[in-house]
Amino acid sequence: MDSFYSQLEARARLTGSLLCIGLNPYPTELPEPTVEAAYDQCLHLIQATSDLAVAFKPNLALFESYGPSGWETLARVIAAVPDDIPVILEAKFGEYNESAELLARIVFSDLKAQAVTLNPFLGYDSLLPFLKDSRKGVFVLCKTTNPGTVDMQELPLAGEGEPLHLYEKIALLAQEWNTANNLGVVVSGLDTEALRRVRQLAPDLWIMAPGVGAAGKELNTALQSGLRADGIGMLIPVSRTICNSSDPHKAVHELQDAIQDFQRSFVDQAETDGPEPRYFPANLAEDLLQAGCVRFGQFSLKSGVQTPIYIDMRQLVSYPHVLNEVSAAYLPILRQLKFDRIAGLPYAALPIATTISLKTGWPVVFPRKEARSYGTRVEIEGRFKVGERVVVINDLATYGLSKFEAIEKLVTAGLVVEDVVVLIDRQAGSREALASAGIRLHSVLTLSDLLDYWERNERIPGEQITAVRRFMDEQTAYV
């Protein structure tokens, strides 16, 4: 049974689109302010754009304005949407107890929508009736487009740790509440700082980003800030831009082309781990620099070799939001693999594997660097059964022996290892070495990916980028 966002993701990949077509029959924009004119406008948009739409989003308030016949027309409009396209009801409900139960029944059973927008102000129990069925989805209001957002959503919150605004707290709660992959957030596509921050705090959530409306700099900036590491995870609602066009299908196609052009600019066409293009998580590249996980200068490796770059993912434990973001970046790859457990390698990958486990429920084992000399004297920590398949999680792929030694311990214990997933492939020979042992290497990023991005955006001085590239050319192994 696929969750709502699994269905939405499948639709996004099928269409190559991120567009959610708004069905907003404003009386002032109809040939005549009647419910039939409203229906005709919506039906025209559905028929013109259904091959390119990821979802349709009717606005409940506009149908309600026509009285009882408006509710009937809303049901007719939803019924006109092809079965394989999700319908998200724009409602912004905020109720609890019996009222929320009744509203959930109206949305999902009576109107037969697949998702709804809700106000989270009343807390988690007000959302529960809408989240019971994982096939039905919810988008909670997080940072909206109206000017009054500053009155509430931008309020600073007191407390320990990193200072947060209210909308940031909502994003964190949404990430926590999304246990069945059917909860997302609404964040203004015009507030790129809020989009960037929410994506940082909730790296694997779907974001509905209203307000952009047309191709251009605003759209690209919104995509830059809000796209997930796999290049999707974001819905762009469009309404008036499409509705007022003489050719809605052409208008949608032009928007879709603009989105795909942006996505392609972040795809590594030369090297992918599978049939899907690999998208570049720009926010993550920035955060790795800020957290000091990647540093430039002159460093000595364990082997004594001098290197102009040092990558240390152990720093992640001091930056929970970056650790969360890093762990989410592994998920698109992991969800395409078959396994029973994940195996984190000490030490840097252990917090990454643990965070992945907390997000997904996948159990973790890990090989010890040294076997215990007391107690159980085991070399593999965690529960497992002989013959189970594990995916190895590591932070980096180098040519060092530690990964192979760890895999040997797992295999000796009776586990099957066919895949290794890393955050960064330093492109120093690990892929080829693992392949010779019958093991596939998958990476979120390559070192070349990062260097290209930092050079393109002038984040690192050109001479340091050149020095690292020269070092990569000269070295065939890192110890």
Task: Explain how this protein is built.
Strands 2-1-10-9-8-5-4-3 form an 8-stranded parallel β-sheet, sandwiched between helices. The protein has a 6-stranded mixed β-sheet with strand order 15-14-13-16-17-18, sandwiched between helices. It has a two-stranded antiparallel sheet with strand order 6-7. The chain has helices at 4-15, 35-49, 60-64, 68-80, 97-110, 124-131, 149-152, 166-177, 192-201, 217-226, 240-243, 248-264, 282-290, 320-334, 349-360, 402-412, 430-436, 447-456, 462-474, and strands at 19-23, 55-58, 88-93, 115-118, 137-143, 156-157, 164-165, 183-187, 207-208, 234-238, 294-300, 306-311, 341-344, 364-367, 380-381, 389-397, 416-425, 440-446. It is α/β, with parallel strands linked by helices. It folds into 2 domains: 4-264, Alpha-Beta Barrel (TIM Barrel); 282-474, Rossmann fold.
Instruction: Flag low-confidence runs.
Output: 266-277
| Cross-sheet strand order for the largest sheet | 2-1-10-9-8-5-4-3
Query: Which structural class fits the helix and strand makeup?
Result: alpha/beta
| Share of β-strand residues | 15-25%
What is the 3D shape?
globular
- CATH architecture descriptor text of the largest domain: Alpha-Beta Barrel
- Highest-level CATH class of the largest domain: Alpha Beta
Q: How many β-strand stretches?
A: 18
Number of helices: 19
Write down the overall mean pLDDT.
88
Instruction: Return the CATH topology of the largest domain.
Output: TIM Barrel
Oligomer: single chain
